[in-house]
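Blinded run. Sample ID left blank on purpose so nobody reads anything into the name before looking at the predicted structure. Input follows.
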Amino acid sequence: MSKKVAIIKGDGVGLELVSCLTDVLDAVSSDLELITCEAGSTWWEKNGGDTLIPDETWDILDESDACFKGPTTTPGGIGSPKSVAVSIRQKYNLYANVRPIKTFKNTNRPLGDVEHVCVREGTEGLYFGSEVVLDDNVSIAIRRITKTSCQNIARYAFEEAKKRGWDTVVAIHKSNILKETCGLFLDMVDEVGADYPKIEIWRYHIDNIAQQLIKNPQIFNQKILLSTNLFMDIISEECSALVGSIGLIASANIGDDYAMFEPAHGSAPKYAGLDKVNPTATVLAGAWMLEYLGNVKKANAIRKAFEEVIAEGKSITYDLGGTAKMSEMTGAVIKWLDDNQNIKQR
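Blinded prediction complete.
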């Protein structure tokens, strides 16, 4: 029986990128039932209300085996709805927002080759979304940190290190200032870490690691970077710059029973309709979804195709130093897959 996947088309360049993804999935005969649905600011601007996700989309999500979300725009300002990603993470308890960071061959290496995985708690922290106006002069945002979520995300980080054969989890915090919330986070990292005696725990203050990632990023190679929601949101963006383009970074949001996959970048509305942006992050997130749903071989074939196309350098987009259109780079990946049927099928 084929797996059902909810496909949120998204905003800005989302529709184009999702089209690239579905073309590549067709090229590997993924046998997924793809059900497209609406969510994001484009839908909200037409329909209004207090959410960016319509009821019919929630129904599709509830009935699917996984979700793929194209990039969406989150409107800002007082009274605007919660983001699509945060809403889905919180409803399905997708506590692990994961972004692998690894240099591709034949790409710009601003500070040398890097390889690490950013693991971000995805459901609480400042993204808990509770703010209070005390008076005309004072507004307060609540940073919610729970033992359960810290245990969940720490366990994921240590398991990821174990799976990869890596020896260190880097716990990123600011416990000298946020003594209770970051203190709780570190306590749970230590508690969970006791079950993994072969894996070290390095503690870094958030401001220090922001500096060290620029000063000497290689000390974090083959390490898991772990933190709370907002801290790792920012740090993972910095890490994306280390490989030269956030257009290369796939992202997954993983819970115990469900997962949502997406590119790490935003909706880039100024590029909508221009056939310009890099499809790598989107399609590699889709390959990750294939792996999650049980088809590791075809997922790896897609990854290999992108590695080869990027390394060759003939059909790469502007952010990688090339002149190819989004559709041309996708076409080159599909051609590579077609020319290497033995890899795709085995």
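Unblinding after everyone has recorded impressions. DSSP finds twelve helices and twelve strands in the chain.
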